[in-house]
Description:
Elements: E1 4-6, E2 14-22, E3 25-33, E4 41-47, E5 56-61, E6 67-74, E7 81-87, E8 99-103, E9 110-114, E10 128-131, E11 138-144, E12 152-159, E13 175-179, E14 185-191, E15 203-207, E16 209-211, H1 213-242
Antiparallel strand pairs: 1-16, 2-3, 4-5, 4-15, 5-6, 6-7, 7-8, 8-9, 9-10, 10-11, 11-12, 12-13, 13-14, 14-15
Amino acid sequence: MGLFHHSKKDSTEENVTVQEIKGDDLSTTTTTSSSLPTVVKIYTIHDNKSCGRKEHIQDIWDSNGQPAFIARYKRPMMHPNEINLHHSSTNSSSEEVLATCRLHNWSENFFYHLGPNPDLTEKNLWPRVQGSCLTMKAWKFTTPLSPNNGQQRSLEWRRTHDKSIGATRWGQRDHKLVDVETGEVLGVFVYMCKAFGRSEAWGRVEFFYEVEEGTEVQALIVLLGAQEAIRRSEMAAANGAGS
Length: 243
């Protein structure tokens, strides 16, 4: 758990495959990047519009358009917001939780738990994701460098405006997954619900290296937590502007 394996085909300048959403169709196109390696895995995240008003669900599809994960959001008024990540299935509400994220009010940091039965683990033992003060430009967490040797690798989802991956110039939502020590980019997230234009997907995640599922789940739950923190900040700012 915790390893990023280099893809077989790396280059300083090459074509990078990305997946675009056009209407209800998933189509693969190719763009050129001078700094990013080949994409080896893609997920698209979709808001599930069939859920009720009190529940928010996101379906996460693999590059073949097949369900891979499902994220369930709880947003109570007076308690921490919670996101639970499951494997996708027709009975996901009763499946074991893969990872959980909890966001407290008035904090740029949040906490997460990997594995089932999160309530059986003391809250002070949950790993903390450190936000970058109030700017929300980066979200740092650690993952095992290799199995069972006790070493950790610091990663962060770092805000980007790189147009070559589809990021916007001014948005807060687009991020690169970066190795803090080396600066190596391991993946990207592009937020696809733009102010103008239409997309069937909420966002797209691309990994540039083979990632073990444990690390993949960890990266996804931290990403979803960061996006939820940004959403809450945007809503608070909008409510403040309207008051």
